[in-house]
Amino acid sequence: MSRKVLFIHSSVDGHTSKICDHMSKKFDQKFNTETMPLEKAQYKDIESNEIIIIGASIRYGNHRPLLYTFINQNEKILNQRSAYFFTVNAVARRAEKRTIENNPYVKKFLKKVNWSPKKIGIFPGKIDYPKYKFFDKHMIRLIMYFSGGPTDLNNSYEFTDWQEIDAFAEEIKKNNG
Ligand SMILES: Cc1cc2nc3c(=O)[nH]c(=O)nc-3n(C[C@H](O)[C@H](O)[C@H](O)COP(=O)(O)O)c2cc1C
């Protein structure tokens, strides 16, 4: 019988959801995958799946409050499942920020939840200047300027290393094979 995998994404501009879609394609016919936005996810969805993968992006220093509400309400069942977490942010474009000890958002996340994910992924996201509204565009540009990132407002920049995403999915498959 195929094993049920549920991806839950907290994604504002769609990049984290794209990462979930990419990962889900790595699961072959031995698995039965489903993807849903965090807004739709309920206790029964976790309860009825064996493997849970929650991915969430960062905006202005934080994961969305709904992420914490959802995890805190479901911490018991998450700890009983084979459950994984990954965060998507621009800071992680620098390799040294891709560890649990050095990524500020993961450190903050772990302080706020009583859930121990089986593995945590830290993935660089995408900066899509043309898509952003005036305020966000200029705020992100300022942050990029001070952190040595790209500042051309006419361009978008995808920092995601898709091989790292593949490796994360492969490890989950291996652990649940
Ligand atoms: C308004 C806004 C604020 C952001 N704030 C941060 C931030 O504080 N730190 C960071 O590392 N990345 C930040 N990012 C980068 C996002 O985490 C990155 O674009 C990610 O790919 C977004 O994923 P999503 O499309 O799934 O929401 C920000 C992006 C936007 C548009």
List the main descriptive attributes of the protein structure presented here.
five-stranded parallel beta sheet; binds flavin mononucleotide; about 25% strand; 2 domains; about 180 residues; single chain; Rossmann fold; alpha/beta; 7 helices; two-stranded antiparallel ribbon
Short note summarizing the structure:
The protein has 177 residues and is an alpha/beta fold.
Structure explained in plain terms:
The longest helix has 14 residues, at 162-175. The protein has a five-stranded parallel beta sheet. The chain has a two-stranded antiparallel sheet with strand order 6-7. It has helices at residues 15-24, 43-47, 65-73, 75-80, 104-112, 134-146, 162-175; strands at residues 3-10, 31-37, 51-57, 82-89, 120-124, 126-128, 156-158. It folds into two domains: 3-125 and 160-175, 3-Layer(aba) Sandwich (Rossmann fold), CATH 3.40.50; 126-159, no CATH class. The chain has 177 residues and is an alpha/beta fold. Flavin mononucleotide is lined by residues 11-16, 57-61, 88-91, 125-127, 132, 136, 140.
